[in-house]
Amino acid sequence: MNPTVSQSSIHAPIKEYEGLFVTLPCRIATKNAGQMTVIASDRSEVIVHMLAANREPQTKYVEIMGKVCDDNEVPEILAMRVTDMGNDLDEVQIFSLWIV
């Protein structure tokens, strides 16, 4: 796979993209200070570590741009950007993974 080419993968496990930057539309499951757990395209949980510059998400659905760091059993993303996407999105349509 060429990491310079954007690709979409509807049920691809995030772990396959370790070390790459991705854009992940997802649903927030839980939020804590500086960290949140989201539900990814394959319905698995992903831990998102937010940089201090990111503001706290205000909606149920967000788009995360960050680097996949898979050192643990649960995949993790270091978020460079978190964008609110609203509270009423169609889950079937938003779940996809873009490699940037």
From TrEMBL:
Cellular localisation: Nucleus
Pfam families: Rep_fac-A_3 (PF08661)
Source taxon at top rank: Eukaryota
Molecular-function GO terms, alphabetical: DNA binding
UniProt keyword rRNA processing, yes or no: no
Annotated keywords: Nucleus
Gene Ontology BP terms: DNA recombination; DNA repair; DNA replication
Cellular component GO terms, alphabetical: nuclear lumen
Subcellular location, principal: nucleus
Family in the record: Belongs to the replication factor A protein 3 family.
Name the record gives this protein: Replication factor A protein 3
Organism: Rhodocollybia butyracea
Lineage: Eukaryota, Fungi, Dikarya, Basidiomycota, Agaricomycotina
